[in-house]
What does this fold into?
Amino acid sequence: MGTIKTAPWLDYNHKPIHELDTIRHPNGETGTVLYMADRKEPWRVRYDDNLPRRLVLQVGVKGQAVVVNKRRPNKKKTPAHTPAETRAIDPK
It folds into this structure.
């Protein structure tokens, strides 16, 4: 996957929304934000019924959805110490 896209709208709490983020409505319903490049309006949210809905309608006064889980690319974990430093600290 390439760069994660940022939606042109903010969530109800005025925070940025990115593709693959999870949003939640006040009633507890959650959905995944999608960017569907082949659509006239590409920003959508997919809920349990698997029907993509327009994102702009989910984050306004009526929908009031907020981002609850941000999806980010995996980062490489680097050890705190090199193997030689680890041996010096714990020479077992």
